Amino acid sequence: MIVAHLGVAVEVLFDDGERHQVRVKRSSGHVVGDSVLVRGEVLERRPRNTELRRRDGRGAVHLVGANLDVLGVVVAPRPLPPSGFVDRAIVAARAAGLQPFIIVNKEDLDGAAELTAELRALYGASLPVFSLSAKAGVGLDLLRQFMAEGHRGAFVGTTGVGKSSLLNALCPDLGLAVGELCEARGVGRHTTTVATLHSLAGGGELIDTPGFRDFGLVDIVVDELIVHFPGFEQAMMVRCRFRDCRHRAEPGCAVTALVEKGALAEGRYQAYLDLLSEIENAQDEARRREWKN
């Protein structure tokens, strides 16, 4: 299994516990979590069970990890997540067959209690929300118990939310570099530069990924958004009149009916509409590229 990607080489963990580096091209497509057959300096990748991808602000697609089953979305009161970041990560995880969960780090900072309460109100009915302080070592036990169920996952979050501090707290022998926030800009500095996989003492595995500020969706279609958008679970129990309902202004829409009754918050509905427009625009752009080709 590939346990580290170093750019021009990967580190492979063999079944007998040995570790070796194998040179690869930067464009090889290999990613941490991949199961591979090694023949000399040649890697043959076995089929992936799952893969998580994201699109950056320039439109480039990045593989976050392979053969995961959970995804931790890490947020903090400083820096706050960009608008739509949490929703995009949750939709991407669910569409890829992963179970998402949320971690509110830096619970000792001002505003953390309010952020946790807000996120639990928005997402707590459909996925786990953990509140902790990696730096102070507080609130980690529930997260350890969750990962010890045999999960392999990754943490995603914007730069500066404390993913490396969290991994250091869960794996004390790692000693990953930890950066400070740039106070003038209110954003963090990148400390993780390569992706690595680590085994937790109590069970479970985590991939440490470089920080990023964008989590654009990749190849997510409208039908997937409708099924996986957090907050629509109740609406999915009631059928809309039309099977292809996009929950805008169609008659007999179960979602808009919930909004009108106050059972679905206007803010949650607007967040869905924003993502819906984003995905529709991406699909239209993809069709235009196909026509040009």
TrEMBL record:
| Residues involved in Zn(2+) binding | C240, C245, H247, C253
Keyword tags: Cytoplasm, GTP-binding, Hydrolase, Metal-binding, Nucleotide-binding, Ribosome biogenesis, RNA-binding, rRNA-binding, Zinc
* GO CC list: cytoplasm
Entry binding sites for GTP: N105, K106, E107, D108, G157, T158, T159, G160, V161, G162, K163, S164, S165
Cofactor entry: Zn(2+)
| GO BP annotations, alphabetical order | ribosomal small subunit biogenesis
Protein name (database record) = Small ribosomal subunit biogenesis GTPase RsgA
* Source organism of the structure: Syntrophotalea acetylenivorans
